[in-house]
Amino acid sequence: MTPVHDPFDPPTLTAHGLAAVVAANVRFEAARHGLRQQDVAAIVRISRSAVSLRFTGKAAWTLDEIGRLAQALGIRPGELTVPPARATRPAW
């Protein structure tokens, strides 16, 4: 039987790697700040399609991009490299 992936399980360094952790954190912070991919692209000075590749994990964020985005969001760059906590399930 194939294990079912729980969408509430965040990526981990061990299972998914640092690039996946950073991508998840960037997506979360962008959403939390109401930023669209186009907004993120302008902040980090790359195309919207390049942001899409990074959001989906098909390309990794560079250190410079992480630094520019963190500065714009008012957080430390290292905060984007820490695995996110597991989300709680909605009690529907």
Account of the protein in words:
Residues 32-80 form the HTH cro/C1-type domain. It comes from Georgenia daeguensis. This is HTH cro/C1-type domain-containing protein. Pfam families: HTH_3. By secondary structure, the protein is an all-alpha fold. It has one domain: lambda repressor-like DNA-binding domains (434 Repressor (Amino-terminal Domain)). It is built from five helices and no strands. The protein has helices spanning 13-16, 18-32, 37-44, 48-55, 63-73. Helix 3 packs across helix 4. The longest helix is centred in the first third of the chain and has 15 residues, at 18-32. The mean pLDDT is 84.
